[in-house]
Amino acid sequence: MARTHPRFATPDGGHVPCPTWTPPETFLRQERSITPDPIQATPPAVDLYDPTAGEARAAVYRVDQGRLPVDEVEELVLAVSETVTNALRHGRPPVRLRLWAGPDRIVVTVSDAGTGPADPFAGLLPAGNGIPGGLGLWITYQSCNHVSRLHGPDGFTLRLIGGAPYTAR
């Protein structure tokens, strides 16, 4: 990703500017396609509208069935709970939670009809404004093996993956 590096190191120990460098604020605001996980082509194991955080946590536990190590399940449960809470608090109805389970991973999407966070750094840095709360998205990024954002015509979606993210072989 040369676009994320302002300079390149040269063999002689110097540095040269990268002609394709993009400032972080601009780079993070640009839409990127999300490679679908193949298990998302199947019907979800769970499909809930406007779930409570408790219902979301219970759904992850129900779908897990020993697929993930206990610590990874707990981290995914925390991330899903934070994501659903954020969608209910900051998004626009309806909030939709979908879960798919593969042999070595659980894929979760949480969608709402809102636009998602305006700050391109939301979730990538802890909130530092001194106000209690505001760490849900950051906790999500810290707790999941993979987090993807998707802004679409129908709203905003976060995709969370617990376990081994799909890699095309």
Question: How is this structure best described in words?
Answer:
- The strands form two sheets. This protein has a five-stranded antiparallel beta sheet with strand order 3-4-5-7-6, with helices on one face.
- The model has no long low-confidence stretch (mean pLDDT 87).
- It is α+β, with helices and mostly antiparallel strands and 169 residues long.
- The protein has two domains: 1-30, no CATH class; 31-163, Heat Shock Protein 90 (2-Layer Sandwich), CATH 3.30.565.10.
- The longest helix is centred in the middle third of the chain and has 21 residues, at 70-90.
- It contains four helices and seven strands.
Mean pLDDT: 87
What's the domain count?
2
Question: Which value, in Å, is the CA radius of gyration?
Answer: 18 Å
Widest β-sheet, arrangement of strands? 3-4-5-7-6
The CATH H-level homologous superfamily of the largest domain:
Histidine kinase-like ATPase, C-terminal domain
Total of DSSP H or I helical runs spanning 4+ residues: 4
Helices and strands, in N-to-C order?
Answer: EEHEHHEEHEE
Spatial gap, N to C terminus = 21 Å
CATH architectural name of the largest domain: 2-Layer Sandwich
Can you tell me the CATH class of the largest domain? Alpha Beta
Largest sheet: 5 strands, antiparallel
